[in-house]
Amino acid sequence: MPPLVRVKHLEKIYDVSGVKTPALRGVDLEVLPGEFTALAGPSGSGKSTLLHLIGGLDHPTSGEVWLSGKRVDQLARTELADLRLRHLGFIFQAYNLIPVLTALENAAFVLELRGVPRREREQRALLALETLGMAEFAARRPNQLSGGQQQRVAVARALAAEPAVILADEPTANLDRKTGEALIEYMKMLNQMQGITFVFSTHDPRLLAHVTRTVELEDGQVKSDSAQAQAQRRDGSSVTSVTF
Questions:
Q1: 13 domain-assigned
Q2: Considering the domain boundaries, does residue 243 fall inside one?
């Protein structure tokens, strides 16, 4: 089975006032369709940077980024926008809600861009809002919601679209225990029943307990990968840390 996501020799160096800071140092990673994968590691390890590069929100200093058979880092702007619309869902800590739209309209926005009929997109958006405990706030605009509530609307927008892969940066970080657990169960359901691939950046032990693969980053490199460790066990070989 070909990988849905593949990064090869990926490097990202930020230049701030002439000071070069490496965020990723030669990362190699493949994610197969249907995986439920977490990127773990301390703050500054490169987790969010890697998600941004996979999603085409930033450009690598060197290396390759592939998604659904297309090389993301070489796509024209219009091609990249279409790839995101059709294949990607984003759950990032910056909510990026549209101020003039209600919570329901924000949750249905990607579906509207895809041309999904109004009744269907509203039903799907409302189901996602209900799952996250936000149905009663469906008619409110972002400035009428708390930060945690806005995050739930942003999560609902990504989940309602049911893309091939969802990139989620600390999706449970600002949620209470009950809502966070409901979100994890909903994402698991979409993964198992509809085959949606998830790649998370997270510190949350609740989420880490449910993923099927954990890739640990440290100082911009892959320190360990549970999928490779499992493969080594199946082969009967010893398990060692993997650094690229």
A1: yes
A2: no
Helix axes of 147-161 and 118-131: crossing angle, nearest 10 degrees: 130
Question: 127 is in which domain, residue-wise?
Answer: 5-235
* φ, ψ for residue 156, nearest 5 deg: -60, -40
In angstroms, the CA 228 to CA 45 distance is 20
State whether residue 133 is helix, strand or coil: coil
Per-residue pLDDT of 163-176, as tens digits, reads 889 999 988 887 88
Residue 49: CB partners within 8 Å, gap ≥ 6? 12, 23, 24, 58, 220
The DSSP code for 84 is H
CATH number at 119 reads: 3.40.50.300
Distance CA 62, CA 86 (A): 26
Q: How far apart are CA 67 and CA 31, in angstroms?
A: 10
Question: Identity (one letter) of the amino acid at 32?
Answer: L
Is 210 exposed, middle or buried, given 0-12, 13-18 or 19+ CB atoms closer than 10 A?
Answer: middle
Q: Is 242 domain-assigned? A: no
Fill in the amino acid letter for 176.
D
Q: 178 vs 44, 189, 244, CA distance in Å?
A: 28, 17, 38
- Please tell me the pTM assigned to this model: 0.83
| Per-residue pLDDT tens digits for 18-63 | 899 999 999 999 999 999 999 999 888 999 999 999 999 999 999 9
Domain count, the chain: 1
Residue at 241 is within a domain: no
